[in-house]
Amino acid sequence: MKDTVGAAADAGARSEDFQAFVVGRWSRLMRTAYLLTGEQYAAEDLVQGCLERTFVAWRKVSQARDPDAYVRRIMVNTHARRYRRGLKEYLSRGDDPGLGHDLPGRGDDMAQAVERSDLVAALARLPLRQREAVVLRYWEDLSETQTAAAMGCSVGTVKSNAARGITRLRSAIGPAHTGTDTTHLVHEGRMS
After folding, report:
1. Which of the residues 65, 108, 159, 188 has an alpha carbon 20 to 30 A from that of 118?
2. For the CA atoms of 111, 116, 121, 124, what is the dihedral angle to 10 degrees?
3. Using CA atoms, how far apart are residues 144 and 141, in angstroms rounded to an integer?
4. Are 62 and 15 within 8 A, CB to CB?
C-alpha cells in the first residue's frame, strides 16, 4: 500500500512538472510546428503527438541537460515520419491569424506583411530537410550543433541544407522584391 501511494504521488508530481513545461512552451512549439507543417490543424496534431511522446518519456526528458532540445528532436522526428508516409502539407498565405499575435508589433506595416507572406509561401516550396534546417537554424535561432542534434544529422548536413534553403528563399523572393534583403525577416522572427 505504501508503494502505491508513493508511486501515485510521484506520478502526480511528474504530471504537474509536465503541465508546467507545456504551458511555458506551447506557443513556441506551435510556431515551430506551423512552420514545419504549414497548417494550423497539422501543427496542432504535430504538437499533440510530440507532447504525447514527451509525456511517455517525461522522466528521461525532465532529467535531460536540455529538455527543449529533446522535445524539438521528438517534434522533428514525428514530423519527418508523417512526411515520409506521404502526408501532404501546404503552407497557407497568412490565413492563420493566431500564430503571429504573440510577436512584438515594431512597426509592422503592409509591405512587411506582404514580404512575410511571400517568405512563408517560399518556405512551403522548400524540400523537407531544407525547411527543417532553415526553421530550426534561423527561426528557432539554434546553433548548427543544436540544429544537427534536433534533425539527427551532422553539422555539415545542417550547413548545406540551411545554405541551400536560404539560397532558394532568396531566389524565390528576390525577383518580387528587387534589392530587398529578405534574410532580416528570418532573423527577426517574421516568418509566421
Report:
1. 159
2. 170
3. 9
4. no
Nearest to 34 by CA among 25, 46, 22: 46
| CA–CA separation, 175 and 41 (whole Å) | 32
Distance, C-alpha 159 to centroid of its chain: 18
Do the beta carbons of residue 146 and residue 137 sit within 8 Å? Answer: no
Gap between the Cα atoms of 92 and 84, Å rounded? 21
* Under 8 Å between Cβ of 134 and 162: yes
| The one-letter amino acid at 76 | V
Identify residue 57 by its one-letter amino acid code.
A
Q: What is the pTM of this model?
A: 0.62
Mean pLDDT by 10 residues, the chain (192 residues): 51 79 92 86 92 92 90 90 59 48 48 69 87 90 91 94 92 61 50 43
By residue count, the chain amounts to 192
Three-state SS for 133?
helix
| Cβ atoms within 10 Å, residue 32 | 27
